[in-house]
Specification:
With about 220 residues, the chain is α+β, with helices and mostly antiparallel strands. It has helices at about 1-5, 10-30, 35-45, 50-60, 215-225, and strands at about 70-85, 90-100, 100-110, 110, 115-130, 135-145, 160-175, 185-195, 205-215. Strand 4 and strand 5 form a beta hairpin.
Length: about 220
C-alpha cells in the first residue's frame, strides 16, 4: 500500500512523465532529418512537463486585454518568411487593420526559458500607412509553445510544426507625420503564431495579433486632427 501511495504522488507522476518524454524522443526521431527532428522534440515536449502550468501563467498575463477600457488599436496578419531554429531569429511581413491600417515588417528572436516557453526581449516592427507615415515599435514579451492537435488517420500527415500564443507589449520608439504624438506610448497585445510542417523556403507559417489601447478615443481624436 505504501508503494502505491508513493506512485500516486505528484512528484512521481512528474518523474514518470519525464521518462515517457525521453522514451518518445529516443524512439520517434527520424534519422537524417536533424532540423525537423529538433522541432519534433520541441512539439513532443509540449504535451508534457508543465504545459498546463505555462498555459495558466499565459492566461494570467493576458487577463483584461480587450475588456473594459482596453480596446483594439490594430490587428495584423503576417507570414513568417525566415526563421533560424538554432538562434531563434526570424522575420515576418504582412498588413494591419483597425485604427492603424498599412503594412508591417517585423524581426524577432525567441530565447528559450524552458522546453515550452520563450521570451522575445527586443523585437522590432515597422508600420507604414497609405500616407507614408511610419511607426517603429519595440515589442517584447513571453510565449508558450503548445502541443498541436493532429489526425492520425489523415493520409497527408500533420499540419502544425511548432507555435502557440504570446503576450507582448508594443512600445513606440519613433514615428513620423501624424503619429509623432505616440512616441513613448506602450500598448499590450496578444499574438498567435503557427509554423507549418510542410513549409516552403519562402513561407514558414502565419501570425495573427491584436494590439490594444486603454485610451483609444484620445488617439482617434488626435489622428483626426
Amino acid at each position: 500500500m505504501a508503494s502505491e501511495a508513493l506512485i500516486l504522488t505528484p512528484e512521481n507522476k512528474k518523474r514518470n512523465v519525464h521518462m515517457r518524454t525521453r522514451s518518445l524522443i529516443n524512439t520517434a526521431l527520424p534519422k537524417g532529418r536533424f532540423m525537423n527532428g529538433r522541432r519534433s522534440i520541441l512539439t513532443g515536449l509540449l504535451g508534457f512537463a508543465g504545459l498546463s502550468t505555462a498555459r495558466n501563467a499565459s492566461a494570467n498575463e493576458g487577463e483584461g486585454l480587450g475588456q473594459g477600457d482596453s480596446q483594439l488599436l490594430f490587428s495584423y496578419r503576417t507570414l513568417v518568411i525566415n526563421f533560424n531554429l538554432s538562434n531563434g531569429i526570424g522575420s515576418d511581413i504582412g498588413t494591419t487593420d483597425g485604427v492603424l491600417k498599412g503594412t508591417l515588417l517585423q524581426n524577432f528572436q525567441f530565447l528559450f526559458t524552458s522546453a515550452t516557453t520563450v521570451q522575445t526581449p527586443s523585437d522590432r516592427a515597422l508600420f507604414t500607412d497609405l500616407d507614408g507615415d511610419q511607426i517603429i515599435f519595440k515589442y517584447a514579451g513571453t510565449g508558450t509553445f503548445i502541443a498541436p492537435l493532429s489526425d492520425p488517420n489523415s493520409p497527408l500527415g500533420n499540419l502544425m510544426n511548432v507555435g502557440g500564443p504570446f503576450h507582448v507589449t508594443y512600445t513606440v520608439l519613433n514615428a513620423s507625420g501624424k503619429y509623432t504624438f505616440l512616441i513613448g506610448q506602450a500598448f499590450p497585445g496578444r499574438i498567435v503564431a503557427s509554423n507549418a510542417v510542410s513549409s516552403s523556403p519562402g513561407v514558414l507559417g502565419s501570425v495573427y495579433a491584436e494590439i490594444y489601447s486603454n485610451d483609444l478615443k484620445s488617439i482617434q481624436r488626435q489622428l483626426r486632427g
